[in-house]
Design brief:
9% strand; alpha+beta
Length: 418
Amino acid sequence: MTPTLRVLAWCLHLLVAGLLALVAGRAVLDGRPDAGAVAAAAAATGAVYAAGPLIPRVAASRRASAVWLAVLGAVWAVLLVLSAEAVWLAFPLYLVQLHLLPRWGGLAAVAATAVAAITAFAAHQGGLAPAVAIGPALGAAVAVAVVWSYQAMYRESEKRRRLIEELTETRADLARAQHTAGVLAERERLAREIHDTLAQGFSSIQLLLRAAQRALPDRPEAASDHVDRAREAAADNLAEARRLVAALTPPALEGRSLPDALERLCATVSERHPLTARFHLEGTPVPLPTAHEVELLRIAQSALGNTVRHARAARADLALRFTGAGPDPEAVLEVADDGTGFDAALPPATDPEGGGFGLAAMRARMRALGGSFTVDTAPGRGTTVTARLPVAPAADPAALEHGPDRREDGGTATERRP
């Protein structure tokens, strides 16, 4: 029971005790010959009433409640026969009956109690008058209206409480689902970042060290040159790792535009590997959002890494085109090599040694930014990958010169081709 219900219950108990004391007191003060019997009947009624709240089964079982109310009604009827003032106890009895009994059972008990009160009071008054019937009947109507109204409000309150609990649980489930989706998205992003930076850097280091091993001991100068390049790649990888942890701007984009970063990437690949990588810029560059520049740089790194690792190519052309004409300007990144190519219809290998993650990662990068990604290849005729991103038609020379603020990480790396 809530504190409010406890207060109401105690008020009802005090009302019953006061009315019983009033009935017994009137009989004693009036000097009636049956005052002792009235007091005894009032005491018995009070004892039976007090036993109800003290017996747990009365509140827990409808059957026990009905038995208790029947006993209480019997002793009250004896008191009612002895004293007309006992009719005042009808109203608290109405409330108890409506509270403990089922809806229609309580209504029947109230009607029986009202009839008993009217009959006994009429017998004490020597006849049935309208005033004799109105009092108990009106009290019964008021009791029914009050209790049923309270029960209706209680049921409505319970519905709202359950609804609030369901909404709270739904919000908690939604929060958990959003958290899980965020974790998965961040995990996928980190996987792409690590694959296109650290993993490609380690692959480059591995290739250079293998070249140095083949050059030993006949060509120590060539082996030393390969080791120096591997050390440079390791230093770049260390910078990538630090900036990946700190979530800073890609080193390749710090203080330079995307075309400059792509040109430097081609120069770095040409220096470290037996591959001639050339950069071509077509159209008038426009400032891109930082996220777009980072994704295009990562795709270029991954595509050139594929070429170095798997294509056996002698030349690779990296082109960045800005199509400012037309209603839908685009930034197009294209990487083409003259290598062996592969069958795009075959499923890519998924094991760590065989690769298979690079093309899927590139496609996912473009899909996340609303762009498109295509692969044109066949065995024996090289491979061309193309990434297209829609861009805003405005261009700001100052922004191109100074570049936007960036907060992503990057660098050069190589990738395993499917």
